[in-house]
Amino acid sequence: MFDLGFIGFGNIAQALANGLSSSNYNICTHDIQKPKLKTLRVSNVTFLTSNEEVVEKSKIIFLCVKPNHFPQVLNNISDHVNKKKIIISVGAGVSLDFISKFLNNSKVIRIMPNLSSAFGNGFTAMTFNKFVLTKERALVTKILNLFGQTIELKSEFFFDNITALSGSGPAFFALYLHSVIKFAIESGFTKKQALSIAYNTSGGALSYLENSSLSPENFIKLVSSPKGTTEEGIKHLKSKGFEKIIMDCHRKSAKRSKSISLKNELLLKRITK
């Protein structure tokens, strides 16, 4: 018997497995495609032959497949999920009700982690359906805390926005860093130097904000000097609508999550008629 099972073992599943590297949990998984394991740092992962076997041999099961694959996967495992199993879904836009109806009102937890979970610096939002007991909530929260910070959402209403903010957000931040690195290399720095400049500058700024009482707005004022280089750069960003672009980016991402949710709800209605 395994402590944790992963159905699907792509990027996010491997990040979560890596985040568990300091624990003693034994893990099993199955993926219909042979996953690339270049980022996998843990050795206590056993590969099984089917999703059904993962469910039968695991106490807690993470569903880490693409949203459009959920109906087929849930249909395949439904006969193997009993009332003792705990299902944790990582599917963007896939509601608790959608999963629970497929799995005969099982214990389901919906989470939105991110890739930073691999190093214990992640952020995970979670919400539980009514069938998850208090002691089971505590157990799952303890596991998720190994990935970094956690927050319990009282309503699934917030999941579309948290998906954009913390699920997709790291990629948006990485795009900014990509531009910084590109400029540094074009300016004559080596790639190694460019990476060091970008990572340490951004990491240092985040560390300062986390360890001080300054808001981002006041931090900008602290760095800036009248008619100086920082002020000139900030002025240019604002003239190009930088803040609006960032907010619109998150709105678009959240809207996409909502559209996936609506599509799944329509599918559920057709299936359960």
Can you give a write-up of this model?
The protein is α/β, with parallel strands linked by helices and 273 residues long. The chain has a domain at 2-154: NAD(P)-binding Rossmann-like Domain (Rossmann fold, 3-Layer(aba) Sandwich), CATH 3.40.50. It is 51% helix and 15% strand. The chain is built from eleven helices and eight strands. The protein has an eight-stranded mixed beta sheet with strand order 3-2-1-4-5-6-7-8, with helices on both faces. α3 (70-77) links the parallel β4 and β5. The model has no long low-confidence stretch (mean pLDDT 92).
- Major sheet characteristics: 8 strands, mixed
| CATH class (first level) name of the domain at 2-154 | Alpha Beta
CATH superfamily of the domain at 2-154: NAD(P)-binding Rossmann-like Domain
Low-confidence stretches are none
Radius of gyration: 21 Å
Classify the fold: give the CATH topology of the domain at 2-154.
Answer: Rossmann fold
Q: Please identify the structural class as seen in this structure.
A: alpha/beta
Share in β-strands: 15-25%
